[in-house]
Inverse folding.
């Protein structure tokens, strides 16, 4: 039997889900690849993998897409690791670097800057190098993932995009979901769902395996990241994709 090709982001926020997958019998049925979000999305688009934990902004780029499992990378308010960082308050920001690692975060930033903060800025696409040193003066930057947790200790102004979305729309946000580019066997999806759940039952073990000196991971997993893909999150996702189509 051919193994199902699974790709997932290698950030701290996915470690609980990956822990469950790696400690569940499902691991024998899959080939697991870990990389950064936009790379995972491109692999799914090019059919190099069958299912990926990808930024939801990439969904419209797929010929067909299936949102599988009851789990996601989401937030109900502040998310801590997807933020606009700045040395100046929002009203003084003129330029914003966009993190190349996630389509969802940069599109969310564009929408919120325009609609919520009513702010016109010059966007700069960051390339592969770490651009965080260029966040100074009136130039801010969207930073995501583990680097955002580090940046929280550096930048005096932090605008949390999960929190801003909740304040603007009244809905939670889905940053990434398990998306398949083809129908997958129901039995596999059920087991994959179980594997995700398993990881969330072992958060203390996940924290112990992933030392993080810059942020309290137990707090991160329980107070900031919200993993259950609820109906409210689905509503937030539909609204975001609708705004993305109009953008």
């Amino acid at each position: 039997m051919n193994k199902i090709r699974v790709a997932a982001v290698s950030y701290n926020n996915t470690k609980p889900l990956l822990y469950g997958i790696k400690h569940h019998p499902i691991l024998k049925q899959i080939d697991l690849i870990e990389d950064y979000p936009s790379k995972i999305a491109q692999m799914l688009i090019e059919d190099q993998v069958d299912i990926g934990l990808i930024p939801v902004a990439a969904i419209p780029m797929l010929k067909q897409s299936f949102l599988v499992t009851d789990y996601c990378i989401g937030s109900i308010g502040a998310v801590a690791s997807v933020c606009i960082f700045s040395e100046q308050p929002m009203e003084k920001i003129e330029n914003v670097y966009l993190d190349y690692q996630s389509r969802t975060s940069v599109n969310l930033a564009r929408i919120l800057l325009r609609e919520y903060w009513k702010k016109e800025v010059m966007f700069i696409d960051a390339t592969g190098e770490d651009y965080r040193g260029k966040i100074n003066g009136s130039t801010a930057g969207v930073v995501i993932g583990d680097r955002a947790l580090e940046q929280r200790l550096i930048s005096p102004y932090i605008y949390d995009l999960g929190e801003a979305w909740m304040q603007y729309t009244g809905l939670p946000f889905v940053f990434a979901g398990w998306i398949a580019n083809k129908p997958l066997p129901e039995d596999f999806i059920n087991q994959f769902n179980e594997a995700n759940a398993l990881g969330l039952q072992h958060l203390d073990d996940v924290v112990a395996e992933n030392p993080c000196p810059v942020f309290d991971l137990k707090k991160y997993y329980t107070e900031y990241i919200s993993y259950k893909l609820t109906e409210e999150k689905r509503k937030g996702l539909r609204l975001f994709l609708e705004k993305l189509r109009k953008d």
